[in-house]
TrEMBL record:
InterPro entries: CBASS_pafABC_assoc_protein, PafC-like, PafC_HTH, WCX_dom, WYL_dom
Protein name listed in UniProt: Proteasome accessory factor C
Organism: Micromonospora matsumotoense
PANTHER family: PROTEIN PAFC, PTHR34580
GO CC annotations, alphabetized: proteasome complex
PafC HTH domain location: 11-124
Length: 332
C-alpha cells in the first residue's frame, strides 16, 4: 500500500532537500520506485520534480537552476545546484545561529521555549569551542525591571506597580495579576489582569516606575482573555476618536508609522485621518510635529492645540528679570 503524501510545507521542504541527493545516487530510477522509497504517491513526486525545476542558486537563470532529464518514466538529475553537498556551517554561521537561539530563548512570552532550548543545546554541542565565545546576548529594552517582571510572572505572584500612562500623561498605582510577558516591536510588556480597570491590560516595562511583588498569588478571573497582538499593540476601532490632519512633506512618515484610515493628496500636502486613544494624546502628538501640520478635525482638538501653542508663545514673551553684579537689570 502506498503511504499518503505529506501535507505540510515543512514536510515538503524536508522531502525536497532529501530528493536531490537521493536521485543523484540513483540515476535513471523509475518514478514509481522512487515514490515508493520516499513514501509519497507518483503524482506527489512528479509535483516535487516540477518544483525542483524552479529551484536553484541566486540569479535563477540558465546554469543556476536544478535540472533533470526524463526518459519515459525514468528521471536523472543533470545539475544539482550544490544540494548534493551536506550542510556545513562556517564558524561565523554557527555562532550567529547560537546567538539567535539564545536571544529567542530569552524573549518574554515565546512559545515552545523547551523546543528552542533543545535546538540550542544541539547547536552548541555541534559548535564545540564556539560555545565559550565572548558574546553577550541582550534584548532591546532588557534590564533589571524586565527580569524582575519575568521572575514574578514565572512565580505567578500579584504585583503592585506605579505606571505612567502616556495617553493621559499621568502616573497611577495599580494591583495587577500577571498573565504573561511579551516582546512586541522591540519593547517588553507584561500582560495582566488590572484590578483597578477590571480588565486585561498591557503595561510597557519601561513605563513601570516601581514594582512590588505581593505576598499573594496572581488570581486571574476566568473571563480574562489575552490580547491578539498579531497586528500590533494598538488596535484602531470605530469607538476611538478620529482625527484628520493636513501635513507637509516632512510629516508623511506618519502614514507609515501609524495605521491611517484615509490618505488623500491635496497639492503638495496630504490629508490623513487616523484613530487615537484620546484627544489628550493627539494634542501632544500634533504639538510635537512642528508648524507644517494643520488640524482639520475635530474642532475640539484644533482648539486645544491652538490654546496650548498660544500659552507657550505667551510664556516666551513674558519678561524675565535677571540679576547682574549690580543688582536687577532690564528684562530680556
Amino acid at each position: 500500500m502506498t503511504r499518503p503524501a505529506a501535507r505540510t510545507s515543512a514536510d515538503r521542504l524536508a522531502r525536497l532537500l532529501n530528493l536531490v541527493p537521493y536521485l543523484l545516487a540513483r540515476p535513471g530510477i523509475e518514478v514509481a520506485e522512487a515514490a515508493g522509497d520516499l513514501g509519497v504517491t507518483e503524482r506527489q513526486l512528479r509535483e516535487d520534480l516540477e518544483l525542483l525545476w524552479v529551484c536553484g542558486l541566486p540569479g535563477y537563470g540558465p546554469g543556476d537552476l536544478i535540472d533533470m532529464a526524463f526518459d519515459g518514466d525514468r528521471v536523472t538529475i543533470t545539475y544539482d545546484a550544490g544540494i548534493d553537498r551536506p550542510l556545513r556551517l562556517t564558524p561565523d554561521e554557527a555562532l550567529a545561529l547560537v546567538v539567535a537561539l539564545r536571544m529567542l530563548a530569552e524573549t518574554p512570552g515565546v512559545a515552545n521555549r523547551d523546543a528552542v532550548e533543545r535546538a540550542l543545546a544541539k547547536i552548541e554541542n555541534a559548535a564545540g569551542d564556539l560555545v565559550g565565545a565572548p558574546v553577550a546576548v541582550r534584548l532591546p529594552g532588557e534590564g533589571r525591571r524586565v527580569q524582575e517582571l519575568r521572575a514574578a510572572v514565572e512565580r505567578r505572584r500579584a504585583l503592585r506597580i506605579t505606571y505612567y500612562t502616556a495617553a493621559r500623561d499621568e502616573s497611577t498605582e495599580r494591583t495587577i495579576d500577571p498573565l504573561r510577558m511579551l516582546m512586541v516591536d522591540g519593547r517588553a510588556y507584561v500582560e495582566a489582569w488590572c484590578r483597578r480597570a477590571e480588565a486585561v491590560r498591557l503595561f510597557r516595562a519601561d513605563r513601570i516606575d516601581a514594582v512590588v511583588e505581593l505576598d499573594e498569588p496572581a488570581v486571574v478571573p476566568p473571563q480574562a482573555r489575552p490580547h491578539d497582538l498579531r497586528q500590533g499593540v494598538f488596535r484602531p476601532s470605530p469607538d476611538l476618536p478620529l482625527i484628520t490632519l493636513r501635513i507637509g512633506r516632512g510629516e508623511r512618515w506618519i502614514t507609515e508609522y501609524y495605521p491611517c484610515e484615509r490618505v488623500e493628496v491635496d497639492g503638495d500636502r496630504w490629508v490623513v485621518s487616523l484613530r487615537v486613544t484620546d484627544l489628550g494624546w493627539a494634542r501632544r502628538f500634533v504639538l510635537g510635529l512642528g508648524p507644517d501640520v494643520t488640524v482639520v478635525a475635530p474642532v475640539e482638538l484644533a482648539a486645544q492645540v491652538r490654546a496650548q501653542a498660544t500659552a507657550a508663545l505667551e510664556a516666551y514673551a513674558t519678561p524675565v528679570l535677571s540679576a547682574g553684579p549690580a543688582g536687577p537689570v532690564t528684562a530680556r
